[in-house]
C-alpha cells in the first residue's frame, strides 16, 4: 500500500492531485503547524480577464499553532466572495451545474476551523475524481511503517515546473487564448467533468 503524508490544502491544485497519484492512503496531521504563505487557505481560479486567488481569512495574528486550531474569520464576507467568484468563473462551464451542488453547501456552512473545511472539501474532490483513497487523520506526529512524505513540498513559493509532480497538460478552459496551468481542481472538474482523472494522469511529470 502506498501511504502519502500531505498538507491539507483549500480546494487543492492540479499539482496536489498529481503528487498523490497512486496513493491508497492519505495521512493527515492536524498537529502540524499552520504555515503562512501556503496553500492551506488559498486557491486559484480563472476569471474572464485574470487568474484570481481566493483566500480564507484567518483569525488573529496567525501564530505558529497546530492546523486544527486555526480559526476562520467570519467577520469578513469571504464565503459570498468565493461563491460569487466561482459562479462568475465557471457558471457557463460544461459541468458546473453537475458538480457545483457538491461544493456549495460546504462553502456556505460556517466551519469553526480551517481544518474541518479543508477535510470536507478534499473528501468531496476525491469522490468526484473517483479515487478510492483512504484518508487517515493522525493525532500524533509519529507514523508506523513506510510513507511518502510530501508535507511542505507544494507551496506558492517557487514554480510547479521546478518540482517533480506536475507538467502542464492543456484541456479546454472557458477564458483566454493561452492555457492557464495548475489552477484549483475546480477548474478541471467544471471544464472536463468525468475526463478530469484522465487529464491528471496525462499531467504526471515524467521522471
UniProtKB/TrEMBL annotation:
- InterPro entries reported for this sequence: WbqC
Name by which UniProt lists this protein: WbqC family protein
Recorded hits in Pfam families, A to Z, give: WbqC
Amino acid at each position: 500500500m502506498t501511504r502519502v503524508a500531505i498538507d491539507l490544502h483549500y480546494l487543492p491544485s492540479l499539482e496536489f492531485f498529481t503528487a498523490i497519484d497512486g496513493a491508497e492512503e492519505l495521512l493527515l496531521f492536524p498537529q502540524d503547524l499552520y504555515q503562512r504563505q501556503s496553500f492551506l487557505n488559498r486557491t486559484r481560479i480563472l476569471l474572464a480577464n485574470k487568474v484570481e486567488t481566493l483566500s480564507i481569512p484567518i483569525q488573529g495574528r496567525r501564530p505558529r499553532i497546530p492546523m486544527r486550531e486555526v480559526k476562520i474569520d467570519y467577520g469578513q464576507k469571504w464565503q459570498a466572495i468565493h461563491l460569487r467568484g466561482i459562479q462568475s468563473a465557471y457558471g457557463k462551464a460544461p459541468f458546473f451545474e453537475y458538480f457545483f451542488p457538491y461544493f456549495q453547501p460546504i462553502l456556505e456552512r460556517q466551519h469553526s476551523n480551517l481544518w474541518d473545511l479543508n477535510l470536507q472539501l478534499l473528501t468531496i474532490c476525491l469522490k468526484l475524481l473517483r479515487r478510492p483513497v483512504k484518508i487517515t487523520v493522525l493525532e500524533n506526529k509519529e507514523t508506523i511503517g513506510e510513507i511518502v512524505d510530501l508535507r511542505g513540498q507544494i507551496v506558492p513559493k517557487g514554480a510547479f515546473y521546478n518540482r517533480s509532480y506536475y507538467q502542464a497538460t492543456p484541456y479546454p478552459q472557458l477564458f483566454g487564448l493561452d492555457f492557464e496551468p495548475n489552477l484549483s481542481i475546480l477548474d478541471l472538474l467544471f471544464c472536463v467533468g468525468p475526463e478530469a482523472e484522465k487529464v491528471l494522469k496525462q499531467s504526471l511529470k515524467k521522471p
